[in-house]
Specification:
This is Polysaccharide biosynthesis protein. The structure is a single chain. This protein is about 85% helix and about 0% strand. The protein is mainly alpha-helical. It has one domain. It starts with a helix and ends with a helix.
Length: about 425
């Protein structure tokens, strides 16, 4: 399948995936109310923080390895089992940590059950080999499977979630799609003999892969400081209702920022190969076009929300979520900023094999966020949290762009030096 066809199919499925929360969120916000909505949102946030440890950067490093060895079945099988072994080990550790948080913390029974159900998110990440499908350029199949599972699980959600007391049921049905889809997608890999049993994985193999992914893991862990810490601070300062307002805004902006995923995933294998071949000029051309697309889309989205935002939020979430509109006035800028940063990081820094620089970038970003986020939340509550995230994401995007430009300049200089040396050698 060509890159254009992959992009077209992925965006078709992505737009349908965006329709799922459009159907679910207004229903859940009215049935569960701000407090119940906040319970589910908080449990999901805690699970997603732990998910950073489970993924450990494998979604990028393993995808790169699969892309570079896609025509070597034995190597692919080894990559699959080594990555799965590492993620399973990390998932078991994270589940024990999640159980400890649920039972040792001061939460109520409802909060505790919702947090324990977050284990479904963790194991869903293990079972869903996104990195493998990305490497073999089968992302449309993965995206379609996830869409179908989410669509089917809407039926029991509308049947069994009827009152604010059904928070646990809502959490279970919201957290389980990745587990179900992961089982289906894994079964397909075995049926088509993309992977097979009988591969021996040693501890040193797992540790080697974890070492390769370490820099991306540290970057993701630092990113969580300004992606998820706001929810934790809001709950501690303002309670579940304010978390509900903020999470409602995030539920709308998260799918928008994910619209960058199909384009980036489609080009990632190609960019890895371009860097491997030393064609830095081609990388620059592709990257500039992608960044331009995200920038224009973000500007149009911002203008559209200023015109129709208040009307939309009132009718979408209900009158009880008026505060969400003020949060979205700021957060509507965040998806475009994140899309640009993700394109630069994944298609340049990671694709070129320079993921070791990400740690320094995200350390600076995390420190910047920790300096201004608590004050913003203290003085302006959930709206302050939105200002804090927007400022940090913009700061990080600028740093990532400068670093990517530096990497490409160094690669070009190195390539020109090699060409000059080769010319002189031939002349002699």
């Amino acid at each position: 399948m060509t890159t254009r066809k992959v992009i077209a199919s992925l965006y078709s499925v992505q737009l349908l995936n965006y329709a799922v929360p459009v159907v679910v969120l207004p229903y859940l916000s009215r049935v569960l109310g701000p407090a119940g909505f906040g319970v589910v949102g908080y449990a999901q946030t805690v699970a997603q923080i732990l998910l950073i440890f489970v993924d450990f950067g494998f979604d990028l490093t393993s995808a790169r390895k699969v892309a570079l060895h896609s025509d070597q079945p034995e190597v692919l099988n080894k990559i699959y089992w080594t990555t799965m072994s590492a993620k399973s080990l990390l998932a078991m550790i994270c589940c024990m940590g999640l159980a400890a948080l649920a039972f040792l913390g001061p939460d109520s029974g409802t909060n505790r059950v919702a947090m324990l159900l977050g284990m479904l998110i963790i194991w869903g990440s293990v079972l869903t080999p996104t990195w493998f499908y990305q490497g073999i350029q089968r992302m449309p199949m993965l995206a379609l499977s996830m869409l179908l599972v989410r669509g089917v699980l809407l039926i029991p959600l509308f049947i069994f979630v009827r009152t604010a007391a059904d928070v646990a049921v809502a959490a279970a049905l919201q957290f389980s799609p990745a587990v179900v889809a992961g089982l289906v997608l894994t079964a397909w890999l075995f049926r088509t003999r993309r992977v097979s049993f009988g591969c021996t994985v040693k501890l040193r193999d797992v540790l080697r892969d974890m070492k390769d992914a370490y820099h991306i893991f540290v970057s993701s862990a630092l990113t969580s400081v300004y992606m998820y810490a706001n929810v934790v601070f809001l709950r501690a300062i303002a309670g579940n209702a304010d978390v509900g307002y903020y999470v409602a805004a995030e539920k709308l902006t998260t799918p928008l920022r994910q619209l960058s995923v199909p384009l980036i995933q489609s080009f990632f294998p190609k960019m890895c190969q371009l860097y491997a071949n030393g064609d830095v000029h081609a990388v620059g051309r592709v990257l500039r076009r992608i960044v331009a697309v995200f920038t224009i889309a973000g500007a149009l989205l911002f203008v559209g929300f200023q015109v129709l935002g208040k009307w939309f939020v009132t009718r979408f979430f209900g009158d009880g979520f008026t505060k969400t509109y003020h949060i979205l006035q700021v957060m509507i800028l965040v998806p475009a900023i994140i899309c640009v940063a993700a394109a630069v990081v994944q298609l340049c820094i990671v694709a070129s094999g320079n993921q070791n620089v990400l740690k320094r970038i995200y350390v600076v970003g995390a420190l910047f966020h920790l300096c201004q986020m608590p004050l913003a939340i203290y003085f302006w509550g959930s709206v302050g949290a939105a200002y804090s995230v927007a400022a940090t994401e913009l700061f990080m995007s600028v740093i990532a762009c400068f670093k990517a430009a530096k990497i490409n300049a160094q690669l070009l200089a190195s390539g020109q030096s090699k060409d000059l040396a080769e010319t002189l050698r031939r002349a002699q």
